[in-house]
């Protein structure tokens, strides 16, 4: 990828689509939602201009017609019970997708092709004209407040939006029944959980205030070929064992090993290195009850945990599969 962080995105239109009067619906955050910090998460999708297709069997696709379909599908008449739709952004970008540096999304994507969050959800649709008109590309992006939705819920929203844009019936009707997660008994926690959290005052200062501008939180996008995952899985599986490592185990162990190897500072080997994977817990909370499992499969909110292992930083370099210690969630 090239250095695609230096380009211009021009806001062409902001559509305010809230219909008044509106019936307000107040939805409380669950305890699982409240575990999440005020963190923004984004997703974007890229589409080639489908010249040989038509919108709902009618007019040829144009930027305006595509915007119209997306705008209608996300209008408040569909989403009124769950969303107060204040506005959506349409924009043009003077960059080709092949020139974007997707390895550094914080620089090349955030605030450009992916909108800054305003409220609980922001949507931006961007058109990018390359040198050849046949490669005109549409980029659809959303930024969510993580406190209202995990990746599973965000996917429900995106799939529903796509189905409505294609005039299809909804395959999943989301559930907002917070009572599904009412506690059965007073909770307790292991003292080891104290090691998972630190006061906000103990976090590293913002990037602008740090020597050299180092950023403690870095986003990366990796593109891994299927054959590479299969090779990792083969290398990770011992010939003397009947147990076959899964692809997620194999890749996670490889990533943990690479992160540990990247530590080159003095006394780094004496530091703790942690590896965690975000997991959906809807099936776990159904406790084998098929009826509850069916309801939990449509539950829109946060139902996740992060099981993780920890080791001294030199151990994952040679034994990335042997998490040892405590694997917490």
Automatic annotation (TrEMBL):
Domain of life: Eukaryota
Gene3D superfamilies: Chloramphenicol acetyltransferase-like domain (3.30.559.10)
GO molecular function list: acyltransferase activity, transferring groups other than amino-acyl groups
Cited Pfam families: Transferase (PF02458)
PANTHER family: HXXXD-TYPE ACYL-TRANSFERASE FAMILY PROTEIN, TRICHOTHECENE 3-O-ACETYLTRANSFERASE
Family membership: Belongs to the plant acyltransferase family.
Record protein name field: Uncharacterized protein
Organism: Vitis rotundifolia
């Amino acid at each position: 990828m090239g250095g695609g962080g230096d380009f211009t995105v021009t806001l062409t239109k902001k559509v305010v689509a809230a219909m008044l009067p509106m019936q307000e619906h107040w939805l409380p955050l669950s305890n699982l939602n409240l575990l999440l910090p005020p963190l923004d998460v984004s997703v974007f999708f890229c589409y080639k201009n489908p010249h040989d297709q038509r919108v709902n069997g009618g007019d040829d696709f144009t930027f305006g017609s595509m915007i119209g379909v997306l705008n209608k599908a996300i209008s408040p008449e569909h989403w009124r019970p769950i969303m107060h739709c204040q506005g959506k952004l349409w924009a043009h970008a003077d960059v080709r997708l092949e020139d974007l540096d997707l390895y550094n999304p914080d620089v090349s994507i955030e605030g450009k092709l992916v909108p800054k969050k305003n409220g609980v959800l922001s949507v931006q649709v961007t058109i990018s004209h390359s040198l050849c008109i046949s490669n005109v590309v549409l980029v659809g992006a959303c930024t969510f407040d993580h406190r209202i939705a995990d990746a599973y819920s965000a996917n429900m929203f995106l799939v529903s939006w796509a189905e409505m844009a294609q005039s299809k019936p909804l395959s999943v009707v989301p559930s907002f029944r917070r009572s599904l997660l009412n506690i059965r008994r007073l909770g307790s926690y292991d003292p080891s959980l104290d090691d998972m959290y630190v006061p906000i005052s103990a976090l590293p200062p913002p990037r602008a205030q740090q020597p050299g501008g180092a950023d403690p939180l870095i986003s990366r996008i990796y593109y891994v070929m299927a054959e590479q995952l299969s090779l990792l899985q083969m290398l990770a599986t011992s010939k003397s064992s009947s147990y076959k490592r899964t692809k997620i185990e194999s890749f996670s162990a490889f990533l943990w090993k690479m992160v540990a190897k990247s530590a080159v500072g003095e006394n780094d080997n004496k530091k703790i290195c942690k590896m965690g994977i975000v997991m959906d817990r809807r099936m776990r909370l159904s406790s084998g009850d098929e009826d509850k499992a069916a309801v939990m499969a449509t539950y829109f909110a946060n139902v996740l945990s992060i099981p993780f292992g920890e080791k001294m930083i030199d151990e994952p370099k040679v034994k990335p599969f042997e998490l040892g210690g405590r694997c917490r969630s």
